[in-house]
Amino acid sequence: MSEAGEAGGESGRSGGDPAAEAGGATLWHGRFEGGSAEALQALNDSLPFDRRMFREDIAGSRAHATMLGHVGLLTGDEVAAILDALGVVEAEIASGEMTFAVSDEDIHTAVERRVTELTPAGAKLHTGRSRNDQVATDLRLWTLAAIDEVSVLIRRLCQTLADRAAEADDAYLPGYTHLQRAQSVSLAHHLLAHGWTLLRDLDRLADARRRVDVSPLGAGALAGSSLALDPTLTAEQLGFSATFENSLDAVSDRDFVAETLFALSMVGIHLSRMGEEFVLWSSSEFGFVSLSDGFSTGSSMMPQKKNPDVAELARGKAGRLIGHLTGLLATLKGLPLTYNKDLQEDKEPLFDAVDTVRLTLLALDGMLAELTFNTEVMAAAADDPMAAATDLAEYLVTAGMPFRDAHAVVGAIVREALTAGAAAGQKMAELVTAHVDLGPEAAALLQPGASVVRRTSPGGGAPSAAAAQLIRFQEACSARK
Ligand code: ARG
After folding, report:
1. Same domain, 276 and 151
2. pTM over 0.85
3. How far, CA to CA in Å, does 39 sit from each of 35, 36, 43, 45, 70?
4. Cα-to-centroid distance, 50 and ligand 1 (Å)
5. In this structure, is residue 209 part of a structural domain?
6. Which among 11, 178, 457, 478 is annotated as catalytic?
7. Is the link from the previous residue into 375 a cis peptide, with omega within 30 of 0?
8. Measured from the CB, is residue 132 less than 6 Å from ligand 1?
């Protein structure tokens, strides 16, 4: 994936410099008498954002020129001259030396204009090609690389979750429903829950990737060509797994962008949910984690503050990702076949979504790697005897009582214990010990750490179950490499 920075800043554009406009006529100058209005250019130009696809554009042009040579539409010398010139242009753009002309509407125009300045054969580069199949090719290549890059970062976060889960050993905390303490679970179990969501994200991205991995090059503007093009050859040279079947579909399809944005939005939503938990856990009210200095911020006014900005931004960025997805879907919904300029609106949301997910993954990973789990605070919260109520009911079930009856028996004990206010835990222990169907053995379940170790059902919350799960999680991560 090409980076925007590599392609030089906005200042690389020549503005009104007539010298820089040499060879800078529009691509349609033969058909038009007048020049373009400034307002049209300002609205129409995509160079400021699509220049980051310059490597993909040049790769596409290399494949196209080579194919044209293969089918006899270019001579060997012409192909060689074009390939040389493409090498020069790539180096010029990468180094920031390239001067862009006012008429360089987009990266495709700019590259071809510069190639043609370097060699007359450049004027043949667009043979059998349109910017419509060209831009679709470039964006697919860019998206493939972006998916791979994001996937590496997701795997890294999975590994950090696995490392922290392994380290967590027998630590446990309350599990919540409705944000109310429910049943205690091991910390490893909780961390791995986030890990499995990320593995599904990896699968979603890999699945979307299969549909990105189709070459549209050779579709021309919309209808293919009367020339003897060989789209399979260009597809192979560019490393695509498949070639388009229908030229109309090839140039108008942006499902691959929408799907990628959806997969990235799901990543963002998962990071947001994780972020929200760390916001809660780092609050004084929970106190379950302490953030490292490197991954928290202070307050300009309140000297005592340490804020979980990374976690909050992980939560906040999800809104932006969802916006990009819904924005693109709205752009696509009314479009007739085939290419319409609306489609130029595909790139900015995609680029920003990839940048956003990349930054968020990196920061959240660092925050998670460095934070401290306050396992004593977690355990104290989980050791509330009330959290063992379900275990008491299950104790009665083991002795043969129907679960509904057991629920009622324990519910009545809880209700009575709560009348003791601050001493409710103590009262609960007394009531359980004295109960004819429960007794001292059942009361032992109320002891600190006693209930969590019993939840050993497959995929359950006991530390021993989580240890087995961790092995399966590591295997699942390796299987996705
Ligand atoms: N910059 C354009 C885009 O991003 C390239 C395709 C232009 N095609 C056209 N027929 N004007 O969509």
Report:
1. yes
2. yes
3. 12, 8, 6, 10, 42
4. 10
5. yes
6. 178
7. no
8. yes
